[in-house]
Amino acid sequence: MCALLRFKRFFKTHFDLLRRNYCDTSSKSDPDLKHVLTRIFVLLCRYDIISALKGVNHSAIPPRAFEAMSRNFGISHECFASPLNRVSHSYNSIFPDVD
Predict the structure, then answer these.
(1) Residue 28 and residue 55: Cα distance in Å, rounded?
(2) Number of neighbours of residue 9 by Cβ within 10 angstroms
C-alpha cells in the first residue's frame, strides 16, 4: 500500500507545485482538471514504491546551483529529475507517462 494512504500527509507547497505543473502541461488533454488528483496520487505512489524498494534518495542540486549553471553555461535541461525535485521546466524522468 502506498505510504500516502498510510500517513495521509503531503506538504501543500509540493501539492501546489505539482498541480501548477500539471496545469501547465496538461491543459489540452485535461482542460477541466478532472484527472489532476488521480495523476498526482499515482505519481507519488510510484516514487514512494521506488524509494521503498531501492532505498533511493531523490537528491538534487540546489536551485541556486542550477540557476548559476544555466546563467554561466547555458544549461537548460536536467537529465535526471522528477516533478518533486526539478528546477528546469525541461527534464528527463523515470516515469514520463505521469511526470
Answers:
(1) 36
(2) 7
